[in-house]
Design goal:
Length: 218
């Protein structure tokens, strides 16, 4: 089973992922914790190219690098783990490419071609994945911005306008595939978030025992 964790920067993905991983391991499950962009040597190199301004790159270049990075990660890490029956907890996945790259305003006349390209690449990636669910850590931009104070920011985190279009991107994406998503209220204390995550741990564990229930998060 693949569980991806999505949300704007500063929403608490890493803390939530670490909590989920430890709770699932406590239940005796084999779990790997990985992230995108990244998760393999090649993918980590591509991550640096996308998220920094070392070489300035367009939205389309970033989209292609994100999918190249993802293909390597899926082939080398995610698919082998899923084939071995492990639970994969991945911070960010295809929804991030939708929210960060597909909402880039620069495509102009090529938008429908780029959208087509995105969905084709998504189909290829999803051929390697069957049981796939996503937690969306929901938090207002003002709160996430406060949490980012003092951190070294990447090129997306630095720009408030990008954060706004990312939120819109996520909301469109959730509307396109609502059954895959489970919304977690990330705008509360860590203890409150953990209570919501405990319910999800229970559902994941139960569904692994009864795999005939595919929409277990809904
Ligand atoms: P992180 O700080 O959550 O690790 O994410 C790193 C940055 O990568 C974040 O600002 C969003 C960006 N990103 C993309 O632009 N496209 C993608 O496909 C992914 C997975 C992340």
């Amino acid at each position: 089973m693949l569980i991806t964790i999505e949300g704007i920067d500063g929403c608490g993905k890493t803390t939530s992922a670490e909590y989920l991983v430890s709770k699932l391991r406590d239940r005796g499950l084999k779990v790997i914790h990985t992230r995108e962009l990244g998760g393999t040597q090649l993918a980590e190199i591509l991550r640096e190219l996308v998220i920094t301004d070392i070489y300035s790159s367009s939205g389309l270049t970033d989209l292609l690098m994100a999918f190249a990075s993802r293909m390597d990660h899926v082939e080398k890490v995610i698919k082998p783990a899923l084939d071995a029956g492990e639970v994969v907890i991945c911070e960010r996945f295809i929804d991030s490419t939708y929210a960060y790259q597909l909402t880039d305003p620069s495509y102009k006349d090529n938008l429908s071609l780029v959208r087509g390209l995105f969905y084709d690449l998504e189909v290829i990636i999803k051929k390697h994945i069957r049981d796939y669910h996503t937690l969306y850590l929901d938090i207002p931009i003002e709160e996430s911005t406060k949490r980012l104070v003092g951190r070294k920011l990447d090129k997306f985190e630095k720009d408030q306008a990008i954060q706004c279009r990312v939120v819109k991107g996520y909301s469109d994406r959730i509307a396109q595939d609502p059954k895959r998503f489970l919304r977690v209220n990330a705008n509360q204390s860590l203890e409150g978030v953990k209570v919501e995550l405990d319910v999800i741990v229970e559902k994941i564990s139960t569904s692994l025992i009864s795999p005939e229930e595919p929409d277990f998060l809904t």
